[in-house]
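I'm curious: can you give me some protein's one-letter sequence along with its backbone structure tokens because I've never seen that pairing?
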Amino acid sequence: MKELKKQIEIIKVMGMKPNFSELARMYGIDRRTVKKYYEGYEGKPKKRKKPSKLDKYSNEIKIKLSIKGVTIRAVYEKLKDEGLDVGTYSNFSKYVKRKELKPEKTVKGHPRFETLAGMQAQVDWKEDIKLQSRTGETFEFNVFNYKLGFSRYCYFEYRKEKTQQDVFECLISAFKETGGVPKEILFDNMRTVVDITESGRKINSKMKAFTKDFGFKIKLCKPVHSYTKGKIESANKFVSWVLAYDAA
């Protein structure tokens, strides 16, 4: 519109009668818009930079988002649970991005790996989670995570320990919850599942007996290739939401 304004100024200085239709064609706008500018319209006023109601929580949001695994949604839900007026999630997310409160990270993409229904599940632990209550009491626990490869259905179970018996009990609970046993289950180098020897990795005898009883095979992740169990890793990010509730 700067060029149009200059043209209008020239017309006024020269005392010419403006041809609104011709000017509209030149600048690709409506003739009524040209007339408005000729009559003194200056365009929409610039928006005032009003303070946001989220500004007072800015520091807390930044601290929570600096915790590895904590998402914007997790912090939003945590503040809402405290009864704070944080508005809608959409505006909250825009505020975080505009203020650059969440550290940027570079993620390399990998090809999607899909399996048929009933074919595979993935298992992992979200280990050594520590949360402190408002009274200063510390809670330490682990979360067993079982995820079906086809439907992405997740089963989580809280455990204080990560013994082999814990794994067996959690797997049985997961089978009951999901209504069956998959043909194979993907594990990493879990100590309760795999023995590491000089000749390589092998499934320990108790776990072999368990797989035989329940009729499934164990598949091990490739060493140093964490993305081979990417489905379960993405589910572990969900478990990380609880870290936003740490009062420490």
Notes: The mean pLDDT is 83. Residues 164-178 form the longest helix (15 residues). The first strand starts at residue 120 and ends at 132.
